[in-house]
Amino acid sequence: MNASEELSPGDALQEIDRMRRHVGRSTRWTGWLFLIWGFSAVTYWSAMFFVPAWRAFAGVAWLIMTILSTVYVYRQGVYGHGYTRLQGTVTIAWVITMAGAALTGMYVLPGDPSGWWIALGVTVAVVAALPVLYAGWRLRPWEGAR
Amino acid sequence: MSGNGAHPRHGLDQVIHTPVRLSIMAALAAAEKVEFRFLRDTIEVSDSLLSKHMLVLEEAGYVKVEKAFVSKKPGTWLSLTPKGRGAFQAYVSVLEKITKGTPHA
């Protein structure tokens, strides 16, 4: 847009809509990232608890996701409505539930879980993911620019 | 800021109603916080032009400029103030009133 051109009301509305869509596209990624982390956490803990052969792969995948997310967060230049309010609470809850899952895996679950131990392990994996799944749900990236 | 005539266009906030400042306000209205460089690249202006218009909006009390860390990222973060958000909503209402009242706005 030329900074010196005359602005008609129609042009102004078009520009507002264009900006809303453009910025909305960028803010939606934060919500998707939370959801990706949530589903990854369920998969990660399930692998750690029940499939010893996948532990190394899950660990490497987790490390790669952490690096990519850190790069994304560092490059992210826009945050959607509600992000700041969620960020602190979700981070604290995420650290607590992930630590809880790790401690459950180390001290509670048997080496070869079966029966109710599987139910407990799955529950712990889901609970570990809840903070980020909640954040993703609150940001509602599937709804588009709001 | 606005004239005294009866036509809705007189109600257009002249602080917002310029191409660059409109883009800035529209971008900030669509987010909670926007980083200076992201905004500059999004609306395709130079650093100096963006700074100049940001100053006008800041002086009008529409925009808050913070040098802060967000998600551990340092930068100049921009956001609309409640006054700015209200002014932008009022501005959009006037635009809609004009375009609904005139078929070829």
Write the layout of secondary structure elements.
The complex is a heterodimer of chains A (146) and B (105).
Chain A: H1 9-50, H2 55-75, E1 78-79, H3 83-108, H4 116-139
Helix pairs in contact in A: 1-2, 1-4, 3-4
Chain B: H1 19-29, E1 33-35, H2 36-43, H3 47-59, E2 63-70, E3 73-80, H4 82-101
Antiparallel strand pairs in B: 1-3, 2-3
Structure description:
The complex is a heterodimer of chains A (146) and B (105). By secondary structure, chain A is mainly alpha-helical. The longest helix of chain A has 42 residues. Chain B has a three-stranded antiparallel β-sheet. In chain B, β2 and β3 form a beta hairpin. Chain B has a domain of 72 residues: Winged helix-like DNA-binding domain superfamily/Winged helix DNA-binding domain (Arc Repressor Mutant, subunit A), CATH 1.10.10. In chain B, 50% of the residues lie in helices and 18% in strands. Chain B has 105 residues and is of the alpha+beta class. At the A-B interface, α1, β1 and α3 of A face α1, β1, α2 and α4 of B.
Q: Could you provide a short overview of the structure?
A:
Chain A is mostly helical and 146 residues long. Chain A has helices at 9-50, 55-75, 83-108, 116-139, and one strand spanning 78-79.
CATH architecture of one domain in chain B: Orthogonal Bundle
The main sheet of chain A comes to: none
Low-pLDDT runs of 5+ residues of chain A are none
Radius of gyration of chain B: 15 Å
The gross shape of chain B turns out to be: elongated
Strands in their spatial order, largest beta sheet of chain B = 1-3-2
Number of strands of chain B: 3
Largest sheet entry of chain B:
3 strands, antiparallel
Report the average pLDDT across residues of chain B.
Answer: 88
Q: Which series of helices and strands of chain A comes N to C? A: HHEHH
What's the number of helices of chain A? 4
- Provide the helix percentage of chain A: over 70%
CATH homologous superfamily title of one domain in chain B: Winged helix-like DNA-binding domain superfamily/Winged helix DNA-binding domain
Strand content of chain B: 15-25%
Task: Report the average pLDDT across residues of chain A.
Answer: 90
Query: Secondary-structure element order of chain B, as H and E?
Result: HEHHEEH
Structural class of chain B: alpha+beta
Provide the helix percentage of chain B: 40-55%
Keywords (chain A): Membrane, Transmembrane, Transmembrane helix
Pfam family, one (chain B): HTH_34
Protein name (chain B): Transcriptional regulator
InterPro entries (chain B): WH-like_DNA-bd_sf, WH_DNA-bd_dom, WH_DNA-bd_sf
